[in-house]
């Protein structure tokens, strides 16, 4: 049987040209008024996923 990519993950992460995985950090969706501005700035944008999580994501994405 053919392997399939994990469609939910493809909508949440990006794979760079060099094969690194980027995603949005957690804890940045709501309840932001209670967080300090410095923390809110750090939670903005895409961040690199490292270690075992990145390997697991690549496996699910068939990269």
- Biggest sheet: strands, sense, closure? 3 strands, antiparallel
CATH arch. level architecture = Irregular
Q: What is the CATH topology assignment?
A: Factor Xa Inhibitor
Report the top-level CATH class. Answer: Few Secondary Structures
Strand proportion, as a percent range, falls in 5-15%
Decide which structural class fits the backbone: alpha+beta
Could you list the spans in which at least 5 consecutive residues all have pLDDT below 50? none
Give the topology.
Blueprint: H1 7-10, E1 13-15, E2 21-23, H2 37-42, E3 47-49, H3 51-61
Antiparallel strand pairs: 1-2, 2-3
Task: Please tell me about this protein's structure.
- This protein is an alpha+beta fold.
- The chain has one domain (1-22, 35-63): Factor Xa Inhibitor (Irregular).
- 33% of the residues lie in helices and 14% in strands.
- It is built from 3 helices and 3 strands.
- The chain has a 3-stranded antiparallel beta sheet with strand order 1-2-3.
- A hairpin with a 5-residue loop joins β1 and β2 (21-23).
List the defining traits of the structure above.
single chain, alpha+beta, 63 residues, elongated, three-stranded antiparallel sheet, Factor Xa Inhibitor
Question: Can you describe this structure in just a few lines?
Answer:
The chain has 63 residues and is α+β, with helices and mostly antiparallel strands. 33% of the residues lie in helices and 14% in strands.
